[in-house]
Write a structure and sequence with these properties.
The protein has helices spanning 2-9, 27-33, 44-53, 124-129, 152-163, and strands at 15-20, 35-37, 59-64, 71-84, 108-123, 147-150. The longest helix has 12 residues, at 152-163. The chain has a 6-stranded mixed β-sheet, sandwiched between helices. By secondary structure, it is α+β, with helices and mostly antiparallel strands. A hairpin with a 6-residue loop joins strand 3 (59-64) and strand 4. The chain is built from 5 helices and 6 strands. The structure holds a DNA duplex.
Length: 165
DNA sequence: GCCAACGTTGGC
DNA sequence: GCCAACGTTGGC
């Protein structure tokens, strides 16, 4: 109750950072598809952000994790709010989770649409040394959430870095 | 409810 | 490939 009231107080759009390993799904894949479900999140905190907070129109920093180098590759936009991650129901799918079923789904996903690939990739190392990004979660030690909230001012700084010549 | 063991993430 | 730091699981 309290939580949903607070949600109504949120200014929109909200801003997020979402990690994907480019080996399995990169921003180039999203550019080609234009739009994709964001399946495979298997962490409760990340799920809660998607299920309870993400709204259509929210903007997303598309982060390439486990890449050389890791960093922000571009942006995307939430175009469908949370619904059950159906890959958990498919026995032969990598995302299969026997504890989840269509009557009582555990895992959720949103859909995102392609916005842009930054003209200039912004590596993690640069985020670390950029002034005014000190509280950005992705550069904090020990934080490995694959879906994390980002402050608007941080989003804008990073977008600028991505466009800097 | 504690906590050890195990599995995963993800930078390096 | 290594490994630190997490998160989850399951025995008790």
């Amino acid at each position: 109750m309290q939580q949903s009231f607070l949600n109504l107080m949120q200014p929109y759009p909200q801003y997020w950072l979402m990690k994907s390993e480019p080996n399995s799904f990169s921003i180039h894949d999203l550019e080609r598809l234009r739009k994709s479900s964001w399946d495979g999140v298997r962490n409760y905190q990340a799920r809660n952000f998607m299920r309870d907070q993400m709204r259509i129109g929210d903007l997303v920093l598309f982060y390439h994790s486990n890449a050389k180098p890791p960093g922000v590759a571009g942006t995307a936009r939430v175009c469908r709010e949370a619904y059950p991650d159906f890959t958990t129901f498919e026995k032969n799918h990598k995302g299969f989770d026997p504890k989840s079923n269509p009557e009582k789904p555990i895992w959720f996903m949103v859909d995102v649409e392609f916005v842009e690939i930054f003209p200039r990739f912004v590596p993690l190392e640069e985020l670390r040394r950029t002034k005014n990004l000190e509280t950005l979660l992705v550069i904090r030690k020990g934080i490995r959430l694959s879906v994390q909230p980002v402050e608007k001012k941080h989003f804008e700084i990073i977008k600028q870095l991505g466009h800097k010549l």
